[in-house]
């Protein structure tokens, strides 16, 4: 039957490693290859997802609770934590999700550079700052990945190094952030991958809430035929 044919075909999707040279050439020429949706749609969704990391997060609450200075770097450290959680979720969506991840990170660097310019940071200084941020970002991704797959001690150590810049004397602050990351990742896991690829729309649970265990399955977002 058709359904059997589809399921067999779908299970034979090429893995990231096994995509051949021909597919890569086709992709380089702008054809979508085995991606699920058009690149343009994925880029729009990636920008939306990055925007959700920036616009739907209460940065002041983070600065206050974590006792962070109100600087571009502090803003970036909180943004990068949310971007990382989005990357963790989208990596579960195969090649299309991984392509979206690349674009989310691209949007982030463009935004950081723009914010630096708006703040009037000298271009030479900004270039150095960005270089440091890039190095710290990939180190943080590695640390957070290890933390989310390990126990709370490893995740707490990663947050202490990366978000708090090794500057946190109150274990309750770390405990709060570990719980925040765990519930947030769980919340993102409950969202439909299809919806995320089409809309990029994510929501965040509050940093402090009365019942952190009450994770409800969120409603699917509504989008039109264009997938936007």
From TrEMBL:
Span of domain Ubiquinol-cytochrome c chaperone: 65-200
Name of this chain's protein: UQCC1 factor
Recorded superkingdom: Eukaryota
Transmembrane domains' residue ranges: none
Organism: Sapayoa aenigma
PANTHER family named among the record's database cross-references: UBIQUINOL-CYTOCHROME C REDUCTASE COMPLEX ASSEMBLY FACTOR 1 FAMILY MEMBER, UBIQUINOL-CYTOCHROME-C REDUCTASE COMPLEX ASSEMBLY FACTOR 1
Pfam (any one): Ubiq_cyt_C_chap
GO BP term (any one): mitochondrial respiratory chain complex III assembly
Protein family membership: Belongs to the CBP3 family.
GO cellular component, one term: mitochondrion
InterPro entries, alphabetized: Ubiq_cyt_c_chap, Ubiqinol_cyt_c_chaperone_CPB3
């Amino acid at each position: 039957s058709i359904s059997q044919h589809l399921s067999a075909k779908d299970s034979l999707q090429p893995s990231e490693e096994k995509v051949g040279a021909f597919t890569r050439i086709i992709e380089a020429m702008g054809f979508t290859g085995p991606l699920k949706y058009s690149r343009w749609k994925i880029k729009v969704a990636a920008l939306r997802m990055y925007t959700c990391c920036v616009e739907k997060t209460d940065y002041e609450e983070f600065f206050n609770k974590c006792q962070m200075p109100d600087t571009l770097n502090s803003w970036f450290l909180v943004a990068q934590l949310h971007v990382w959680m989005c990357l963790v979720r989208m990596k579960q969506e195969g090649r299309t999700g991984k392509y979206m991840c690349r674009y989310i990170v691209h949007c982030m660097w463009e935004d950081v550079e723009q914010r630096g310019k708006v703040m009037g940071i000298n271009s030479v200084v900004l270039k150095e700052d960005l270089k440091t941020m890039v190095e710290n970002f990939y180190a943080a991704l590695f640390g957070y990945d290890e933390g989310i797959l390990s126990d709370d001690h490893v995740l707490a150590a990663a947050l202490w190094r990366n978000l708090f810049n090794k500057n946190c004397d109150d274990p309750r602050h770390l405990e709060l952030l570990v719980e925040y990351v765990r519930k947030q990742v769980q919340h993102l896991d409950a969202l439909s991958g299809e919806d995320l690829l089409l809309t990029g729309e994510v929501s965040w649970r509050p940093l402090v809430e009365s019942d952190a265990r009450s994770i409800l399955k969120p409603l699917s977002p509504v989008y039109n035929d264009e997938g936007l």
